[in-house]
Design brief:
- The protein is mainly beta.
- It has two domains: 8-85, Elongation Factor Tu (Ef-tu), domain 3; 104-199, Elongation Factor Tu (Ef-tu), domain 3.
- The protein contains four helices and twelve strands; from the N terminus they run E-E-H-E-E-E-H-E-E-E-E-E-E-H-E-H.
- The chain has a six-stranded antiparallel beta barrel with strand order 1-2-5-4-3-6. The chain has a six-stranded antiparallel β-barrel with strand order 7-8-11-10-9-12.
- A hairpin with a 3-residue loop joins strand 1 (8-17) and strand 2 (21-27).
- The radius of gyration is 17 Å and the shape is globular.
Length: 201
């Protein structure tokens, strides 16, 4: 489990194709500092399991299913990535409950800068729109964010939502430089999915 508070902006060091997966090597001295094989690290919001850790670079195997349904399949060597270690019993829950299980991807539509923040609008697959509410939580590339506004799908198309990014988020995460057209991983609030199942049984 994670909180969506990015600890470090890492960098893809190597991508090794395997028969039915890839082995991803990521440089992240802070999160890799105490990582051991079997530990979980969220990479752009995708929960991955550490295979090896050597001098600030950890490796993780990424299955074809994950590559096909997240933005990790588009990563290239040198690409920056958001990194977060799994929470511990004493961790402050600064964001919200994040599983690292991506529900879908969205595309950045626009960026509107302001003096003290920046509004970013992202498409939302129609099947996920029911889990979002104004001022609710959404995870974008592993970043816990608050929904500033929400546009419902029209004619079975994708909807969209807007988040307001503070300077700290712009400086410390990949959302500081991603541009319209870039694809991002989305994870909706798991509590909303549990509530839906309970009230529709």
């Amino acid at each position: 489990m994670f909180t969506g508070i990015v600890e470090e902006l890492g960098q893809v060091a190597h991508i090794e194709p395997l028969d039915d997966a890839v082995r991803l090597s990521v440089k992240g001295p802070e999160v890799a500092g105490d990582a051991r094989p079997g530990d979980s690290i969220a990479v752009n919001g995708v929960c991955l399991t550490v295979v090896t850790n050597d001098d600030g670079v950890f490796t993780a195997d990424v299955m074809l299913q994950t590559l096909a349904h997240t933005s990790l399949g588009a990563l290239r060597v040198g690409a920056p990535v958001n990194l977060e270690r799994a929470v511990t019993p004493t961790t402050r829950l600064g964001g919200h409950i994040v599983q690292g299980h991506v529900d879908g991807t969205g595309t950045i539509v626009s960026r509107t800068p302001s003096e003290h923040w920046e509004l970013v609008t992202i498409t939302l697959p129609s099947e996920l729109s029911r889990y979002l509410v104004d001022k609710g939580s959404i995870t974008v590339d592993g970043i816990s964010l608050t929904v500033a506004s929400l546009a419902d799908p029209v004619d079975s198309g994708d909807g969209s939502f807007t988040v307001s990014l503070i300077p700290e988020t712009l400086a410390r995460t990949t959302l500081g430089f991603k541009q319209p057209g870039d694809v991002v991983n989305l994870e909706v609030d798991v509590i909303a999915k549990y509530v839906e199942k309970m009230v529709t049984r």
